[in-house]
Amino acid sequence: MDEKIKELIAIGAAIGAHCQPCLTYHLEKARELGVDDESIRAAIETGHQVERGAMNAMKKFSEEILPPKNCYEDRCKSMKQMASSCCG
């Protein structure tokens, strides 16, 4: 694998890792190697795609561990406490 490809991979990885110093470093290295802006943009977008996939997977995983509160259920509990029931 050539150095240009390695730097493009590192740019995408820096995006996915949320590492601003890494992105700055690898962006400068890629430019020094003559990598064009379109290739750098593609690497950045690929990093964002991986990032979104990981975020969606983590959201789903965390909701399986502890489902989010249901506002309707909370309102229903409050009404029951006030001697009025919406849930029967």
Automatic annotation (TrEMBL):
Domain Carboxymuconolactone decarboxylase-like residue range list: 2-45
GO molecular function terms attached to this record: peroxiredoxin activity
Stored InterPro entries: AhpD-like, AhpD_core, CMD-like
Signal sequence extent: none
NCBIfam families: ahpD_dom (TIGR00778)
The protein's name: Carboxymuconolactone decarboxylase-like domain-containing protein
Lineage of producing organism: Bacteria, Pseudomonadati, Thermodesulfobacteriota, Desulfuromonadia, Geobacterales
